[in-house]
Amino acid sequence: MSGSVKSYAAVDLGASSGRVMVGRVGPDSLELTEAHRFVNRPVRLPEGLRWDILSLYGGVLDGLKAAGQVDSVGIDSWAVDYGLLDADGRLLGNPVHYRDSRTEGVAEKVWATVPAPELYAATGLQYAPFNTLYQLVADRLTGAERLLLIPDLLTYWLTGEQGTELTNASTTQLIDPRTRGWSYGIAQRLCIDLELFAPLRQPGDPAGLLRPEVLEETGLAGPVPVTAVGSHDTASAVAAVPASGERFAYICTGTWSLAGLELDAPVLTEESRAANFTNELGLDGTVRYLRNIMGLWLLQECVRAWGDPDLGELLREAAEAPALRSVVDASDPVFLPPGRMPERIAETCRASGQPVPVSPGEITRCILDSLALAHRRAVEEAQRLADHPVDVVHVVGGGTRNALLCQLTADACGLPVVAGPTEAAALGNVLVQARAHGLVGDLAGGRELLTRTQPLTRYEPRGDPGRWREAQARLVRI
Fold first, then answer.
1. Reported pTM
2. pLDDT grade for 3, boundaries at 50, 70 and 90
3. 11 to each of 19, 149, 152, 154, how far by Cα in Å?
4. Residues near 221 by Cβ (< 8 Å), separated by ≥ 6?
5. Which residues are catalytic?
6. How high is the mean pLDDT of the chain?
């Protein structure tokens, strides 16, 4: 491997914000700095909830300009959503947001053709009402000649070349996790034309060069290659879990919590389907066996409703509030839409006969206790369903800044929690680019480099684990 240090731009788009980070990588060094951060604010139009994709693309261009000269660019984002192009490669309207209501009732129509157990056995994907498959069944595809998932759409605008990166494609519910190729039988039965998708790409594959117009706008000197990374942000985040060996669980925290295991084969049992675990594809033939949990979306929506109070003070009040006084199911679809989150949490507690949290501190404590409880349940059930025991839980992503949540997760799981890195998706993005250019070895080598170079915090479990079992039993009764 080369002894030089190279720079990589990681475009990392989350459901509420986007950022362009610059990673400088050498054989014994890995430094990440923020070049530009911008808001990702969906827009509610008369026809429904839409992503402001042009604003996001503008943020990417501004970020690349701020990043300065780099050796490569990689893009990751949230999953399932897409843009539709006409025969001339022009976008047919703003991409629909996964929280839009157009998929309500669609799953039942799909299951009438392909029963849910059969769909899971073929694709391994958990049920979520916004899975790409359900969006496609609900969508009017008039005039559409090409479908590009969000990071692939932005890559196309940067390079003029089209592709479908595999880790994100695996969230469409149209990939067979055993073959890591399209599930043609499922698509055919549901009248979904897989020719809409561009050819599959693997993480590390070349994805084109920045177009001359992009070079001019960003001030970069060409040629600048774009590299396919784990373009689903969770795939990139899991690639940046600083674990050694195989006996670990991970929780990628942010707007969502994705809690589970890294496996070498999917778990496609009926029991796994009933527990709503998903089998998404990761780097190097791995499977991300995980459960989607509502995540810090609950707190983000409350903070917005409260007029953006000081988060540090809010967490201090939560730490002083009574523990496990009231809990809710953090995976309940009732919490999926935006708006009235404090009231909905209070109503859920009232309906279940629990004390109703009133103050922002009490509601925040209810949310964090409920998230920790959901983390506990996911980690325990994943180990049992996959027959894969773990000794440690790695928490990565934005939730690592929330020390109370990390400690509560350790307490709930009864396992040590290692928190960090915070910008896991961007770091995983950078590592795949560096690996494609010969600076980093295999997945284990990248993780070892992360362990040596990134700040990590360890939380040991505290308190009586019986209290968490009782709280879990309370939720089951509800």
1. 0.93
2. low
3. 6, 15, 12, 10
4. 69, 215
5. 233
6. 96
